[in-house]
Design brief:
The structure holds two protein chains of two kinds. In chain A, helix 5 runs antiparallel to helix 6. Chain A is mainly alpha-helical. Chain A contains six helices and one strand. Chain A has two domains: 67 residues, no CATH class; 69 residues, no CATH class. Chain B is an all-alpha fold. Chain B folds into two domains: 56 residues; 58 residues. The longest helix of chain B is centred in the last third of the chain and has 56 residues. Chain B is 91% helix and 2% strand. Chain B starts with a helix and ends with a helix. The chains are: A mainly alpha, B mainly alpha. The interface between A and B is large, with 90 and 78 residues. Strand 1 of chain A pairs antiparallel with strand 1 of chain B, so a sheet runs across the interface.
């Protein structure tokens, strides 16, 4: 069974500042770790940490506590699609900034759109194949 | 040394801001599976790469982006493994296993691809 896709802006206000601060802290930590790895082992190794699941896992623990394990598993399934998009983002960014010699803002914008398109397409395929709700 | 610390600090703050921004978008979306797509957004990458390109130039960003593709592949495999892991072992051990899978897959791919 597939649930309707909806947008609820009021949830941002209802959630409050604490979840956002926690996610900011995790994101900042991963940025720091990736930067430190780059300094120690080079840009390639540091780049691997730019696609670390740490921020997702922080989110999963919050979601599992507030909404239950089935919601956390659902978020994981969606994150699989987003992660496939990350591969496309990385490859397009490398090509755009490298051999294609696109301007950096254009490259990052197109790469982000590509991430959204690939991740979204993967999500729609998953939705068509196995539906949208976790079995509880 | 001073400029290295400044670059690192800017990357850190930028990454945190982008993660928070994508988290805002994710929190507004239903169903949860669609919100999960945004949980794997290139947030840390955008914050870090923007600072790298702006302060250090494109060369490092190209190599970092290739490394990111490797990490992204590991991320996808680890997310797929996380669903049964969460069901079987719960949140804490399931997420620990997820990180381990990401680390192993990314390390193997990194050795093979050598970005």
């Amino acid at each position: 069974m597939s649930a309707r896709i909806e947008i609820h802006p009021e949830r941002v206000r209802e959630a409050g500042w604490r979840p956002l601060l926690i996610r900011f802290a995790f994101g900042a930590s991963m940025g720091l770790i990736a930067g430190a790895v780059t300094l120690l082992f080079g840009a390639g190794a540091g780049g691997v940490f730019l696609a670390s699941p740490a921020t997702l896992l922080a989110s999963l623990t919050l979601v599992a506590r507030e909404e239950g394990l089935h919601s956390a598993r659902d978020e994981c399934r969606g994150a699989t699609c987003g992660a496939v998009g990350l591969v496309a983002f990385g490859l397009l960014t490398a090509a755009g900034l490298g051999p294609l010699r696109w301007p950096a803002p254009l490259t990052l914008f197109v790469a982000t759109v590509c991430w959204a398109a690939v991740g979204g397409l993967c999500y729609l395929v998953m939705r068509a194949l196995i539906g949208d709700e976790d079995e509880t | 040394m001073h400029s290295t610390v400044v670059v690192l600090a800017l990357k850190t703050v930028a990454s945190g801001l982008f993660v928070a921004a994508f988290a805002v978008v994710a929190s507004m979306l239903s169903p949860k599976r669609l919100a999960g797509v945004f949980a794997a957004a290139p947030a840390v990458a955008l914050g870090s790469l923007i600072m790298t390109v702006a302060l250090l130039g494109n060369a490092g960003a190209v190599v970092a982006a290739r490394g990111m593709a490797v990490g992204g592949a590991g991320f996808a495999v680890s997310c797929a493994a996380a669903v049964p892991a969460l069901r079987r072992w719960g949140v804490l051990r399931g997420t620990a296993m997820t990180i381990a899978v990401w680390a192993v897959v990314s390390a193997v791919l990194y050795r093979v691809v050598r970005p």
